[in-house]
């Protein structure tokens, strides 16, 4: 994890595993808007979201990022999922903890990428949580899988749910930016493992979320790339079209790969996020300057 202006701590999960947590405080002098919880994707960690976190703090948000079970600096075997609900329960606990730092009049937003976005969707569908808004970056509703991968991942959960194999995610499919790809490959906290149980969670949860999109209740910003070859853009469009009118704001960036915030042309992505934040969670009005009492001689 990057240290920058953030602080590192650990959060003990229900099963005793430690989750690595990174906290970025809101920038001084900026009116506070609330708290954002960052949920990373498969094989990565919260430290890769430094630029995004710093941007959010400049808009008045405190940011909590954590490494999911089996990822980054958190406990657990790389890529292994102890039980089907583990990722959802961990996010529930992190959100519950973060919500205690939300002052009256402030908002709590969960921002998830890929599998992290899928976990965030499952959380708001299954649990009663004080989440005011969701930002979904390339959610893993329907991953791209070859016929061989589909067959393999259909068998693995039944006979060897804890066995980990190489993830189908290719570094060069994440971004057009060669520096992003090279940094990903060189990052010691990134891994390429996925277990049968984790694969089963992803492939089962995505269709369930899509099937319930018509009952969506949380204001949501959906950001995805039209050239994404990790997850299917068509599934993102399906989600947006199935949700109640006015609830999901969707942006399709036609020439972007999977990590839209890490693309060569990321400015439109950040602009879309800023516009949505300003519309849904405007900054509180600045207090008028205090008038000085007249001096009497």
From TrEMBL:
Transmembrane segments: none annotated. It comes from the Bacteria. It holds the Pfam family Hydrolase_4. Residues 32-265 form the Serine aminopeptidase S33 domain. PANTHER family: PHOSPHOLIPASE-RELATED (PTHR11614). This is Lysophospholipase. The lineage of its organism: Bacteria, Pseudomonadati, Pseudomonadota, Betaproteobacteria, Burkholderiales.
């Amino acid at each position: 994890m990057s240290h920058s202006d953030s602080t590192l701590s650990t959060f003990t999960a229900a099963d005793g595993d430690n989750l690595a947590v990174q906290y970025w405080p809101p920038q001084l002098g900026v009116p506070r808007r609330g708290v954002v919880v960052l949920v990373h994707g498969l094989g990565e960690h919260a430290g890769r979201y430094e630029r995004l976190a710093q941007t959010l703090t400049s808009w008045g948000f405190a940011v909590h990022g954590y490494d999911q079970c089996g990822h980054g600096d958190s406990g657990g075997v790389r890529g292994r999922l102890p039980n089907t609900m583990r990722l959802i329960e961990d996010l529930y606990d992190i959100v519950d903890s973060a919500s205690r730092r939300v002052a009256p009049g402030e908002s709590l937003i969960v921002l998830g990428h890929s599998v992290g976005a899928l976990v965030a969707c499952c959380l708001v569908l299954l649990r009663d949580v004080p989440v005011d808004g969701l930002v979904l970056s390339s959610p893993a509703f329907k991953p791209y899988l070859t016929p061989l991968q589909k067959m393999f991942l259909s068998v693995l959960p039944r006979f060897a749910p804890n066995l980990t194999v190489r993830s189908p995610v290719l570094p060069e499919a994440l971004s057009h930016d060669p520096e992003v790809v090279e940094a990903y490959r060189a990052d010691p906290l990134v891994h390429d493992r996925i277990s049968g149980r984790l694969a089963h969670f992803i492939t089962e949860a995505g269709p369930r979320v899509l099937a319930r999109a018509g009952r969506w209740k949380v204001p949501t910003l959906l950001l995805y790339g039209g050239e994404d070859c990790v997850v299917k853009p068509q599934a993102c469009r399906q989600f947006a079209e199935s949700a109640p009118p006015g609830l999901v704001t969707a942006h399709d960036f036609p020439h972007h790969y999977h990590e839209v915030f890490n693309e060569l042309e990321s400015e439109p992505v950040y602009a879309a996020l800023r516009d949505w934040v300003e519309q849904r969670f405007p900054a509180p009005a600045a207090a008028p300057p205090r008038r000085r009492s007249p001096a009497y001689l």
